């Protein structure tokens, strides 16, 4: 007898894996259905996690009790902290991973979770009754019933792959697409559209002349994603390599433009603005003589390489000939050409902030089905959908929603459901108003206690958080009490290009200097070094950096907190279902249309809708008696 589930997750990508794991770990009887159980959380594009703003999201997933950070750490073959030359609000962790081991470890993790069942099959339709989802029907004819369903279909909904004039149906190269769900939901009233993404050639490393590339090694300091101290990679670390296109490469590519599905009208959907194909770059930046490329290893021991920056849907012969015009790749052989893929998505303004759909009760969307791009954005949505689906089943009326000043995940979801998308959405630090609050170093401080109170983050995580907070407070207190004499530090100050002391000062005041780091002072102030010896060695860098950031940026942090608290008042002014916007003639036409379509929950959300002006907000405030 097939059991009835609390949560059914459709799709085993990054969103589906995080959703299923979260729901099951919270105690929901959960089923994860995927078409191929050997490809959980497959890295369909480049074998890497994190990057600008995306790295912050991975740390937030980890702080909440998700698995992306843990699995990335354990399968890392290179780790770098990007933007270290800038302020800490911009620091972004990024890992290069072993593609095969990443998905293998995800499978091992899922198989170890209590309450989680796995099923290999394709879902062909939803079981709907009176605008409420009751379960799913699979290709081989099995009906699974559940209280909630989460769709995380990635690029598989009516997926169509393009290589030049050749087309094939599929969700990834060599994998079948998923059909019928889009049509069913369209008939139920959903607004749907098409988006495009792409991927570059995969190269045989035995045919690469690395002497013509610039080597890019990982960081010597061992950064990582997870706040759990034991998540270390035991894999051999490998370098990435940098090269450039040139006019000969461009000329070869341009010869194939007449056969490009992007230019002959075959592909009409919108691709990612911030990860364009090489042919798009040549058109958009026609004046540039070269474009940077990154050659990235696919794993610890494989000879396969990924050419980041060379995404293309041109005919394979054109890609191959152009590739061999790149210095170092003159004799390159490829395992497969790049391709573009078109797929269906659903306008995310049709969702609540919980990621439940507005049209069908108990149905949730997460990942690329919402118009996003990237493993990290998908995993974050999956985690949040899994939490909220669980709460719907077991805690009626409770919702888990992160605000824009609490997490990049909050910014991501609010952007999606408030503004919608007209191109694949990618997270950047510039999308967040409160970047100083949403740093990669403090994701646990912001989020772990919230998750622990839900029952997702483990007691171990809560203990680590309490120890970190206590240690940071002790360090700050010590620096405010300890006085430093000039003769101990003047040589250091001179070497760092900052003025010498004429009299003793508190250690705290020295740390405030932008040229000076706590790590510099440890080396010349023996009592301080002795004091810090009690910080656990495996977390020493994390905790000391946390204290230093707080000391140096306290003024900025407090200013952003005050602004966030001021704006938060608007988030408590509920307007959902209070107005018939079509009848409010004092609003602009665009505002009436947008407000009617989105039906924002609060004044704060309404304020962020594109096309709703400050004067429109004032009208609503007056009508509320404000």
Write a brief structural summary.
With 626 residues, this protein is of the alpha+beta class.
- Look at the structure and name the CATH superfamily of the largest domain: FAD/NAD(P)-binding domain
Rg from alpha-carbon coordinates: 26 Å
Tally of discrete structural domains = 4
What assembly state would you assign to the polypeptide chains in this entry?
single chain
Shape label? globular
What class do helices, strands and sheet pairing give?
alpha+beta
CATH class of the largest domain: Alpha Beta
Give structural notes.
Helices cover 35% and strands 18% of the residues. It has four domains: 5-153 and 354-454, FAD/NAD(P)-binding domain; 202-338, Elongation Factor Tu (Ef-tu), domain 3; 459-563, Orthogonal Bundle (Arc Repressor Mutant, subunit A), CATH 1.10.10; 573-623, GidA associated domain, C-terminal subdomain (DNA polymerase, domain 1, Orthogonal Bundle). The strands form five sheets. Strands 1, 2, 6, 7, 8, 9 and 20 form a seven-stranded mixed sheet that branches. The chain has a six-stranded antiparallel sheet with strand order 14-15-16-17-13-18, with no helix packed on it. The chain has 20 helices and 22 strands. Strand 16 (292-297) and strand 17 (304-308) form a beta hairpin.
């Amino acid at each position: 007898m097939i059991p009835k589930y609390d949560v059914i997750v459709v799709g085993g990508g990054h969103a589906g894996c995080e959703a299923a794991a979260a729901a099951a770990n919270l105690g929901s009887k959960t089923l994860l259905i995927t078409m191929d159980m050997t490809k959980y959380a497959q890295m369909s594009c480049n074998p890497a996690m994190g990057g600008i703003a995306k790295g912050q999201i991975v740390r937030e997933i980890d702080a909440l009790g998700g698995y992306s950070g843990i699995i990335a750490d354990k399968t890392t073959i290179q780790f770098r902290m990007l933007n270290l030359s800038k302020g800490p609000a911009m620091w972004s962790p990024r890992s290069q991973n072993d593609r095969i081991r990443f998905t293998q470890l995800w499978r091992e993790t899922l198989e170890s979770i209590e309450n989680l069942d796995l099923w290999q099959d394709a879902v062909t339709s939803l079981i709907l009754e009176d605008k409420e989802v009751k379960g799913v029907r699979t290709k081989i004819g099995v009906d699974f019933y559940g209280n909630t369903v989460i769709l995380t279909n990635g690029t598989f909904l009516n997926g169509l792959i393009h290589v030049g004039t050749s087309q094939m149906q599929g969700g990834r190269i060599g994998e079948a697409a998923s059909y019928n769900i889009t049509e069913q939901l369209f008939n139920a009233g959903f607004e749907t559209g098409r988006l495009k993404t792409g991927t570059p050639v995969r190269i045989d490393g035995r045919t690469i002349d690395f002497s013509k590339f610039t080597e890019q090694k990982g960081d010597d300091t061992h950064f990582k994603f997870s706040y759990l101290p034991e998540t270390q990679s035991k894999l051999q670390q490998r370098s990435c390599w940098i090269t450039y296109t040139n006019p000969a490469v461009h000329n070869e590519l341009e010869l194939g433009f007449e056969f490009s599905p992007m230019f002959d009208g075959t592909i009409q959907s919108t691709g990612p603005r911030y990860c364009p194909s090489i042919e798009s770059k040549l058109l958009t930046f026609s004046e540039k003589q070269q474009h940077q490329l990154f050659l990235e290893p696919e794993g610890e021991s494989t000879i396969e390489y990924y050419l980041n920056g060379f995404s293309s849907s041109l005919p394979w012969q054109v890609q191959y000939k152009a590739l061999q015009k790149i210095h170092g790749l003159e004799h390159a052989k490829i395992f497969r050409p790049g391709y573009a893929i078109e797929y269906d998505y659903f306008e995310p303004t049709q969702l609540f902030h919980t990621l439940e759909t507005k049209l069908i009760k108990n149905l949730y969307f997460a990942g690329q089905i919402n118009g996003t791009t990237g493993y990290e954005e998908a995993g974050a949505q999956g985690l949040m959908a899994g939490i909220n689906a669980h709460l719907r089943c077991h805690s009626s009326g409770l919702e888990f929603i992160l605000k824009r000043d609490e997490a990049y995940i909050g910014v991501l979801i609010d952007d999606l459901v408030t503004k919608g998308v007209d191109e694949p959405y990618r997270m950047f630090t510039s999308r967040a108003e409160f970047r100083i609050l949403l740093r990669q170093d403090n994701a646990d401080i912001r989020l772990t206690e919230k998750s622990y109170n839900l029952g997702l983050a483990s007691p171990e995580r809560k203990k680590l958080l309490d120890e970190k907070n206590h240690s940071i407070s002790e360090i700050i207190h010590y620096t405010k009490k300890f006085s430093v004499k000039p003769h101990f530090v003047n040589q250091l100050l001179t070497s760092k290009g900052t003025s010498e002391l004429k009299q003793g000062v508190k250690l705290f005041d020295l740390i405030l200097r932008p040229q000076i780091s706590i790590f510099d002072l440890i080396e010349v102030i023996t009592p301080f070094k002795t004091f810090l010896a009690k910080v656990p060695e495996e977390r020493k860098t994390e905790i000391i950096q946390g204290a230093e950031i707080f000391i140096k940026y306290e003024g900025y942090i407090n200013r952003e907190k005050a602004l966030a608290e001021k704006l938060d008042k608007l988030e408590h002014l509920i307007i959902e279902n209070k107005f018939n916007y079509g009848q409010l003639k004092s609003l602009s036409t665009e505002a009436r249309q947008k407000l009617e379509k989105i039906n924002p929950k609060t004044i704060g959300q309404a304020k962020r809708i594109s096309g709703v002006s400050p004067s429109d907000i004032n009208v609503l405030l007056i009508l509320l008696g404000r």
